[in-house]
Specification:
By secondary structure, this protein is α/β, with parallel strands linked by helices. The protein is built from 11 helices and 8 strands. The chain has 2 domains: 63 residues; 207 residues, Collagenase (Catalytic Domain) (3-Layer(aba) Sandwich), CATH 3.40.390. It binds zinc ion (ZN).
Length: 293
């Protein structure tokens, strides 16, 4: 299939004018850029006509074929991100993880897998979009997201419980959200809490022993350059055992360890950034740079 391709470099004024023209003519686009999705095909043709009319030139002026490749050439395509898949066997992640291998069949039997409903799927997509800058490595640790009713906690003995909102299982490359993921602890409404819980767990998955800026894994948090920088910014001791200024911690839970601090800070940065900025300008600044806002 031949394509009408614009000549490089693009005529910036013609791009602007073509965008403005199609947005005016097709209000349903609401000012968004065109994509390579088939549903945009008719708009792409119009866009190219407008581009040429505004003085843009073709790479090969004799070519008048289909223009499905045109927009790809004109608009910068969004960076590729590698999203985890949503799985339906969440209970397997918990019950087969090395973390709970010693727990009894009886306890494991109390954990049931659930499917994400449509609104949960939408919320998950929103959170993953917020994390786009940290999902660019093909081999990042977060492969899957699952859903269960309950969780297991092991403090010497194993118990099944309904308090845990979410948990990251490094050995499975999966994080689990439970029925409690939207219990309003940090936020007033359930949807924001659900997103916040997920944001917290994704932080563990992508940043505890991994640096998504360089796509490298580490055997401990104190070797991870990302964690080292965060600990320094947040005021943790080098070994990550002492938080110097506890009043700067974004939440009480954040005081328990650098990993929880970063997870809580990430959650607040994404869903209550004013609170984080007020409580800890240093953490806010660190995350702003990291998330690329
Ligand atoms: Zn956590």
């Amino acid at each position: 299939m031949s394509s009408r391709r614009p000549k490089r470099p693009l005529n910036k004024d013609a791009v602007k004018s073509a965008n403005a023209a199609i947005w005016r003519r097709f209000p349903e686009l609401k000012g968004r850029k065109l994509t390579m999705d088939p549903k945009d095909q008719v708009y792409r043709k119009q866009w190219m006509d407008e581009y040429l009319a505004a003085g843009g030139e073709l790479e090969n002026p004799d070519d008048n074929g289909s223009d499905t490749k045109v927009v790809q050439a004109c608009e910068k395509s969004p960076p590729k991100i590698f999203k985890p898949k949503l799985i339906e066997n969440g209970a397997d992640i918990i019950t087969k993880s090395a973390l709970y291998k010693d727990c009894s069949k009886d306890i494991k039997g109390k954990i049931n897998s659930k499917k994400f409903n449509e609104s949960e799927q939408k919320l998950i997509a929103e959170v993953l979009d917020k994390y786009a800058a940290l999902l660019k490595c093909k081999d990042h640790p977060l492969k899957a997201i699952g859903r269960t009713d309950r969780a297991i906690t092991k403090n010497g003995t194993c118990v099944d419980e309904s308090k845990t909102m979410g948990e990251w299982f490094a050995d499975k490359g999966a994080l689990i959200l439970t029925d409690s993921a939207n219990n309003t602890i940090d936020f007033k409404d359930e949807s924001t809490q659900f997103k916040g819980t997920l944001a917290h767990e994704i932080s563990h998955a992508l940043m505890n022993k991994y640096d998504p800026r360089t796509c490298k894994s580490y055997s401990s948090i104190t070797e991870n350059p990302l964690m080292k920088e965060f600990m320094n910014a947040a005021g943790w001791s080098k070994k990550g055992t002492i938080l110097k200024d506890k009043s700067s911690a974004p939440t009480n839970y954040a005081k328990t360890s650098p990993e929880e601090d970063l997870a809580e800070s990430s959650m607040l940065f994404l869903y209550n950034s004013d609170a984080l900025k007020k409580k800890s300008p240093a953490r806010y600044k660190f995350l702003k740079k990291l998330f690329g806002d």
